[in-house]
C-alpha cells in the first residue's frame, strides 16, 4: 500500500472537509463524521481530519502514480473552497507501511 500525507494549516479545516465531501458525494463514495471525511476514488482513498489548526490529509492506494496524482486533485479542490486563504501550503510526505 502506498500512502502519502500532508498537514495543511487553516483555521477553517472542518468546514473545508465537509464541503469537499459534499462536493464529491455526487460522483464518489464519501463519509463525513464531524470534521473528519473520507473520499473513495477508483484507485485510492483520501482521508481528511481537521482540528482548529488545520487538516491532516492521507491518500492511500495500491498504485503509487494514482496516489501521487490525487495529491494535486485534493489540493486544488480544497483551495477552491479556501479561496480567501488560497493557495494553502501542502507539504506531501510519503509514509511507510
Features:
single chain, 97 residues, alpha+beta, TATA-Binding Protein, 6-stranded antiparallel sheet, 2 helices, 6 strands, 31% helix, 37% strand, globular
What does this structure look like?
The chain has one domain: Alpha-D-phosphohexomutase, C-terminal domain (TATA-Binding Protein). The chain has helices at residues 13-24, 64-81, and strands spanning 2-9, 29-33, 36-40, 45-51, 54-61, 93-95. It has 2 helices and 6 strands, in the order βαββββαβ. Strands 2-3-4-5-1-6 form a 6-stranded antiparallel beta sheet, with helices on one face. The relative contact order is 0.28. With 97 residues, it is an alpha+beta fold.
Topology:
Layout: E1 2-9, H1 13-24, E2 29-33, E3 36-40, E4 45-51, E5 54-61, H2 64-81, E6 93-95
Antiparallel strand pairs: 1-5, 1-6, 2-3, 3-4, 4-5
Amino acid at each position: 500500500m502506498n500512502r502519502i500525507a500532508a498537514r495543511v494549516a487553516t483555521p477553517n479545516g472542518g468546514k473545508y472537509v465537509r464541503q469537499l465531501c459534499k462536493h464529491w458525494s455526487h460522483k464518489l463514495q464519501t463519509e463525513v463524521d464531524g470534521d473528519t471525511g473520507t473520499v473513495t476514488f477508483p484507485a485510492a482513498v483520501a482521508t481528511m481530519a481537521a482540528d482548529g489548526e488545520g487538516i491532516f490529509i492521507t491518500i492511500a492506494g495500491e498504485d503509487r502514480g494514482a496516489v501521487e496524482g490525487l495529491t494535486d486533485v485534493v489540493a486544488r479542490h480544497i483551495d477552491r473552497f479556501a479561496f480567501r486563504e488560497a493557495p494553502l501550503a501542502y507539504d506531501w510526505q510519503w509514509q511507510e507501511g
